Amino acid sequence: MKKIVLMALMFAAGMGASAQDEVERLRVGERSSGMTTVAADVVSSYIWRGQDCGSAAIQPTLGIGYKGLSLTAWGSYGLVDTNDAKEFDLTLAYTAGGFNIGLTDYWFNAGLDPEGRYFKYDAHGTNHIFEANIGYDFGAASIQWFTNLSGNDGVNKDGKRAYSSYVELGVPFKVAAVDWSATVGAVPYATSFYGTDGFAITNLALKATKDIKVTDSFSIPVFAQVAANPCAQKAYFVFGFTLQP
After folding, report:
1. Which terms are listed as keywords in the entry (predicted)?
2. Which of 9, 102, 125, 210 could form a disulfide bond with 93, CB atoms 3.0-4.6 angstroms apart?
């Protein structure tokens, strides 16, 4: 465990950077852990939308935003199991008030292309997945809709492209100086991408985050999350922390 923490600290230190005054610090998508342009999460396991995507991992974020428009790079790399898929995502998003819209290019080293080539975009031979999202943050709650547009998507019951979709409702709240969030996520129709035969609740999660003060000017956000996928009859417990300049 000490080796994993040391690797994470070295990685985050190497990523340190400063942003100009006119560049907004941004919160990027559902997998970001705070307002940041440079950060790295270290997690005990990689759970995404109720799916088990791997064991302990480091997940760096690099993002830049200006007047509501943002471009973000996000990745996940296994720290324990070398068989865990490597992931590299790029997201272009726009936010105005509570409204947001975006397009994400997900890439994995495993998929339809056994050689794991990044620059292979063949419709039936790529490891990329292109997803669009739209949502609104009401303050007391937020809702997001995600749909795969092309790439390595799943299929429906007829064996045709499913245009796999996922909808999520999130509610933030605070208890005893700890930030909490409750999440309910569902897949609206059948797709092999999420392993559903029709409408299904695939993600129920409760997450708590608290800053641990290290020095007067430096603190580390730590978080714990209990998640369940009723459709797959799976449950998970995840612990992690965020490193950022």
Report:
1. Signal
2. 102
The domain containing residue 27 runs over which residues? 2-243
- Give DSSP secondary structure letters for 33-95: -SSBSEEEEEESSEEETTEEEESSEEEEEEEEEETTEEEEEEEEEESS-TTSPPEEEEEEEEE
The whole-number pLDDT of residue 29 equals 40
User: Does the pLDDT value for residue 33 go beyond 50?
Assistant: no
Instruction: Give the β-pairing of 200-215 and 142-151.
Output: unpaired
The token duo for 184 is 């309910």
pLDDT of residue 202: 98
Read off the CATH number of the domain in which 174 is found: 2.40.160.40
Confidence class for position 36, pLDDT limits 50, 70, 90: low
CA distance 185 to 4: 31
CA 127 to chain centre: 18
